[in-house]
């Protein structure tokens, strides 16, 4: 089974009925062998093997909105974080440029799972072994990291990116900032032992955490920069570049076949600011190999893309959103004077400008977003060839 088949089978199983219990049970972390109360689809969603908008529509084909509202809302948290970061790319730049100073011994103990907090040490091992953590556990983990172990949030966010299969610039950076109290100014998330005990089904008892800490504070505010690309789904060049941030071709199957050559960029650790673990690199390689099953002529480019870009300068590029891939492409564009046309999905260009304020404001738009994505899908079903003209 390739990754598309695997994701589709996991998705069908989850949507059959477990999703109906999501709202009631999702906050429990019963341990890595018992994950039926959440979808565990994030590694597919973050590489867009499953597209968020398709997932929403698939779920609504099977169930009424009211029955799965919480699940839909959580998917839109991801859309929201991505859009929020698009409008404030400086937040990513500051995060990625952060360099630690001073003694590193407590960081090393924490990332080796050698603190005296048993649950935390177990989660470190689980993260390295399974490359996944439950959402509630990510919140507890980040909170203990920042407020009990007093480590910089940026190092924790890097540690997550290094090991998570679903590691994502938007969701990860902004969730860490949210726990720290930087995202919603002055409102931090303090993990409480009673809460951990309850939601881990009494697996962790008798431990203490710092429950008094104040939120972190930063002096400057980030201003909104307008999203520069708008909606663009028009083929302008003969060469297409994709990255592991968006390997979805559901509605673009024919469209991608119109290109003379397709390149898939995969960044090695030498080209990354934040190196990722061998297992995460392998996961990405696997995702890309699965893509190649459907486009056998697609060429995988790691560090060789620079050679390609020396002879070809005009590319259509599937927009990878703010993150390492975009940084790399932008750098190459300016170093080699490339001429790049970013392809931005209509759904994304509709959602991004809605992410100016908090999630509470954003979520009021969910019914309208669902209406728009339904219309786009219906138009495609009626006339699959009309993709570029839609
Ligand atoms: C400190 C911290 C770091 C995180 N880092 C990442 C990350 O790097 N990549 C990532 O995809 N998610 C991240 N999340 C969000 C969330 O924890 C994961 O998306 C979720 O746990 C994935 O498990 P699942 O697929 O079973 O989710 P489910 O609960 O089944 O939800 C379905 C989908 O909705 C989306 N989703 C659900 N909850 C959230 C959320 N709170 N924020 C954003 N999207 C959400 C995901 O795409 C998820 O796959 C982070 C959360 C925290 C608190």
Description:
The structure is a single chain. This protein has helices at 3-16, 22-25, 42-45, 52-62, 69-87, 89-97, 105-111, 118-130, 135-148, 153-163, 169-180, 193-199, 253-257, 278-294, 305-311, 324-335, 346-351, 359-363, 366-382, and strands spanning 239-243, 261-265, 299-301, 314-318, 339-343. The protein has 390 residues and is mainly α. The protein has three domains: 3-87, Serine Threonine Protein Phosphatase 5, Tetratricopeptide repeat (Alpha Horseshoe), CATH 1.25.40; 103-199, DNA Cyclobutane Dipyrimidine Photolyase, subunit A, domain 3, CATH 1.10.579; 239-389, Rossmann fold (3-Layer(aba) Sandwich), CATH 3.40.50. Helix 13 links the parallel strand 1 (239-243) and strand 2. The longest helix is centred in the first third of the chain and has 19 residues, at 69-87. It is globular, with a radius of gyration of 21 Å. 36% of the residues are buried. The mean pLDDT is 95. Bound molecules: flavin-adenine dinucleotide.
Sum up the structure in keywords:
mainly alpha; Serine Threonine Protein Phosphatase 5, Tetratricopeptide repeat; DNA Cyclobutane Dipyrimidine Photolyase, subunit A, domain 3; 3 domains; 5-stranded parallel sheet; 5 strands; binds flavin-adenine dinucleotide
Q: What's the CATH first level of the largest domain?
A: Alpha Beta
- How many domain modules? 3
The helical percent reads 40-55%
Count the DSSP helices: 19
Give, in order, the helices and strands: HHHHHHHHHHHHEHEHEHEHEHHH
β-strand percent reads 5-15%
Shape: globular
Sheet with the most strands, sense and barrel status: 5 strands, parallel
Instruction: Kindly provide the radius of gyration, computed on alpha-carbon positions and rounded to a whole number of angstroms.
Output: 21 Å
Low-confidence region ranges: none
Ligands present: flavin-adenine dinucleotide
Please name the CATH topology of the largest domain: Rossmann fold
What structural category arises from helix and sheet content?
mainly alpha
Record the strand order, biggest sheet: 3-2-1-4-5
Q: How many E-type strands?
A: 5
Average pLDDT over all residues = 95
